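Page 47, continued from p. 46.
Same chain as before, 382 aa.
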Amino acid sequence: MTTSTRGAAKAPAVLVLEDGRIFRGRAYGAVGETFGEAVFSTGMTGYQETLTDPSYHRQVVVMTAPHVGNTGVNDEDPESSRIWVSGYVVRDPARVPSNWRSRRTLDEELVQQGVVGISGIDTRALTRHLRERGAMRVGIFSGEAWAGTRDEALLDKVRSQPEMKGANLSAEVATKETYVVPAIGEKRFTVAAVDLGIKGMTPHRMAERGIEVHVLPATATVEDIYGVSPDGVFFSNGPGDPATADHAVSVMQGVLERRTPLFGICFGNQILGRALGFGTYKLKYGHRGINQPVQDRTTGKVEVTAHNHGFAVDAPLDKVSETPYGRAEVSHVCLNDNVVEGLQLLDQPAFSVQYHPEAAAGPHDAAYLFDRFVSLMEAERA
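Result:
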């Protein structure tokens, strides 16, 4: 990525998809060039949490909501220490933010962090294109330096970029050093959380339930995990292709062998799937947003949930499967397309979901999953 912070307000910009489709608009954020996988998010709000979600590493996010930036940027809502999206696409940026917590405009934040974006394009047409053709590589080019460049040359640049399939990215976004999020109020349990791209609200949700959370790097070993004497082990969300995450799969299998209560979300769900012997595959355009309907098959209830994933677990929906760690079944399913949204073991305390129960941003329908994790640890202690 190359960027400049000057001239963004009036600079021309162009978005080039790897299949040759081109959209022309205006620069938004930093001026320069950037590349990634083009994906769309259907959330009507929560753009600050989206931008700072490490699971969006190396992705150019298209916002389906037409008006973005109206509440500005504050210092309380980021889910990590920086913006992780590689590019940002909006239709109508807010001219003036209006919110009592706002400290600066979204455009200013994008410029400050060197994030290249584009505005003024038909994001509805772009979203429909990605739904029909699938997520694909993309480049955004802005500023006078690109005004005279041939479209064919820009397309060649896009097609030379690596694909998301086969990308091993967790270690690039995870913490390098272990840190502790203390329990709020009386400490009840200790959890070792393997950071594969964790969002800040996730350990906070556990801390609210009296859990002291030790957040470990993606490179943590089984010995590192049990060095904190955990009552439970958590595997977080994160970016990239789960087929490359052999280390995380091996570590999770070590946890399953010890029968410690285990909870995984998003990437952690895919890791559990692989640890149990299931395959994973890339979705055509993925699930991203805060309005995805999921059914909890153990209760029959339907939840509106927050998602950010482009890969899924390939597990049978219609039967209980035998695995090296006992019987397993699909516990949650997406009602839009029957994608596996959760797994649970029936013979030991381990489960996972494909979505984001921490709900930052998003509805709180899935908050009970943290309570389910607590119940597993209570039962194990008893």
